[in-house]
Design goal:
15% of the residues lie in helices and 43% in strands. The protein is globular and about 70 Å long. It has one helix at 2-20, and strands at 30-39, 51-54, 59-63, 72-79, 85-92, 95-102, 105-109, 119-126. It has an eight-stranded antiparallel barrel. A hairpin with a 2-residue loop joins strand 6 and strand 7.
């Protein structure tokens, strides 16, 4: 009887743990706009894109309204050590970058910025909820 109780207890704990570690990707999907930047190296040249669009098919696009060709890639989300934050991994142009999502803000910090080390930090804020 004790072993049955242990099995049931462990099963319940496993269910609770697996449910709490799921990420609601529907909350992540949407358009984000650059809000704040801290320039690290102004000599680094590169196109800046005002919008970061995360799509439901796990693709993303960096956009400017005046550009027809915009960088595209894939993204994936995973829990960080802090339960309130989510790490989003971006893959594009043979690069892998990680951003930290906290609420409606994605933060990129050097050397994990989208612009080849131009910024010490870069914030994108979600436009739609």
């Amino acid at each position: 009887m004790k072993s049955l109780y242990k099995i049931i207890s462990l099963s319940i704990m496993a269910i609770i743990t697996s449910c709490s570690s799921k990420i609601d990707e529907n909350q992540i999907i949407g358009k984000y706009e650059i809000d704040k930047v801290v320039v690290r190296d102004s000599l680094v040249k590169g196109e800046e894109y005002r919008l970061l669009v995360l799509n439901s098919d796990k693709t993303f696009e960096l956009k400017n309204s005046d550009k027809k060709e915009n960088p595209k890639g894939t993204w994936e989300a995973r829990k960080s050590k802090n339960d309130d934050e989510i790490i989003i991994g971006f893959s594009f142009s043979n690069r892998k970058i990680e951003g930290l999502l906290d609420g409606n803000i994605i933060t990129f910090s050097y050397p994990n910025d989208l612009y080849l080390g131009k910024y010490s930090s870069l914030l994108y804020v979600k436009l739609n909820k």
